[in-house]
Amino acid sequence: MIDEVRQSSDIVDIVSDYVRLNPSGRHFKALSPFTQEKTPSFIVSPDKQIYKCFSSGKGGNVFTFIMEMEKVTFPEAVEMLAKRAGVDTSKYQLQKAQQEDKQESNQHETLRWAARLFHQTLESDAGRAAYAYLVGKRGLEASTIRKFGLGFAPEAWEFLLDAARRDNIPVEQLTALGLVTRHRERNSLYDTFRNRIIFPILTVGGQVAGFGGRTLSNDPQTPKYINSPESAIFEKSKLLYGMHAAKNDIRKQETAILVEGYMDVIAMHQAGVTNTVASSGTALTRYQAKILKRYTSRVLFLYDGDNAGKKSMLAGIDILLSEGLTPWVVLLPGGDDPDSFIRNYGKEAFLEELESEKSSFQDFQLRCYRDAGLMENPDTASKAISAMTKSIALIADPVQKELYLEELSKKLDLSRQTLRKVMASSNDDRAPRYESRGPSQQKSSPEVKADNRPISVAERTFLEALLESTFYGNEVLDFAASHESMFTLEHPAARAIFTHLVERFREMDDKEGHIDITSEISSLGLEEARNIALDILFRLPVSETNLPSPQEAAQHARRCLSHFLVAVKTIVLEPLQRQKQDILNRLNSTSEKPEEKKLFAQLHDINNQLREMEQEVDESIRGILGE
Length: 627
Description:
Layout: H1 2-7, H2 11-16, E1 22-24, E2 27-30, E3 42-45, E4 50-53, E5 59-60, H3 62-70, H4 74-85, H5 90-99, H6 107-122, H7 128-137, H8 142-147, E6 151-153, H9 159-166, H10 171-176, E7 180-183, E8 188-191, E9 196-202, E10 208-215, E11 225-227, H11 243-253, E12 256-259, H12 262-270, E13 276-278, H13 286-293, E14 298-301, H14 307-322, E15 326-329, H15 338-345, H16 347-356, E16 359-360, H17 361-371, H18 378-393, H19 398-412, H20 416-435, H21 437-444, H22 457-469, H23 475-482, H24 492-507, H25 517-522, H26 527-539, H27 550-589, H28 593-625
Parallel strand pairs: 12-13, 12-14, 14-15
Antiparallel strand pairs: 1-2, 2-3, 3-4, 4-5, 6-9, 7-8, 9-10, 10-11, 15-16
């Protein structure tokens, strides 16, 4: 099944769902989805069906990419890609069920189970009042409720707990995912979400990551909204509500509309404005901006028009600009949010308002500062103008930067020279505001080198020949497996790569069969080994999609074997060469006659060993090559 899914999944199509790819010769290039960078270092090779991120060192195939982006296990990544490619997995799942005993549900399965349970409850008698609220008061259609998987959590304290016991869902997982809460005094568990409309929060790929819950209670002491607690799976600052449903339309329309809440997104989608997502009540983060950047370069803010909403949009403008996005803003009249405006005035009026009230980020900034009275005296106006030039300074494109500066000059009746001076001075103040985020993110990144020593040239050459040879047959692997004792690889990553491939070859029933080298590399347990191997593979002049003829393959295999054997010679002789150099160093540093005599004797022995070993290796190579 894995091979079928991999062959049915083009890596360019898969990666394009997450990253905005641009053609670059035979490859595609993009900004890294794993790091904060301004110069693209993320490369996708359609020929080899692999990716390589040169800023983080990460790389792999379609499976590892989905695992990285969706934070899922390998089987879950296979399942997601199979579903996307239309590969029927039922027969494989049946075989798996027959072969394996009952297993504990993993966290993603538990989240999916909870989402189904909440949705089924909403559509049952227990959810009648909640359903009536959504349809009657919020104006939602049945198809919209199903599209977003809305659910209901009854007021009972152990509704979810009881259902989990019936379905053999481990309570520990419910606790870890925040679906149940422990009562500290009683040391008992109870449902976290009670008497609430449930909004499943999905990743870009459609995986349930967590939940939001809106209360139906009128008790002022009850929080209106609660969310799943933060975890490795649910990081609210790295998710955009509705992105799984909006991403394709955002790409088509080249604009994303950003709103604040769940109901705003749902109302907009029901009205046909399907390029809408929400920051879910949190201030826009740089990570969310990076997600938007994968699909578009334009973002339309549609937050509430109150002071809090304006403040959030002013901060969000700088974040979007710093990530290379162009912000636009719409302020709805009368304090309406998108959900209430559509319910009060209808879809057509909303679409007209959206078009007529759209303003540039600069016009919005100026309007906010004027409404707040900041432009009425020189002291506060100077600070407001400084803030506006800071925003312009964030724009990477020099032409855009100059045009925005010219516009601001006209609107304020100030010279561009004056504004440039303000921008230059405010630019120094801006640095810690954004650049300080870099180190903190690097500290939390798991990408720490396990071994600071670089791999030697000899060992890298050895691995290059070994990996390249697998595209043209198994002759080199066969030799390596039968002469494994000859090789002493110093670097742990090199050893891991070599050992894995040799063991994989020995496990093959058909020694002439093809080894899927990208999948084998992606399955390496040592991350450093995986990254080194993928870096080598990425640079090799081979193609997964344009394989040579049998005659060409034989010639390539011969060349690879020759290169491999030369690398073998270097690796075999290298330990003796190091011993020889050590003796020479000691000779240079000693003046003791007895010590010199002893070292010269050792040097003589090493030279003899080197000569004999070199002759032996050369004879072996000639014999293997038939010379």
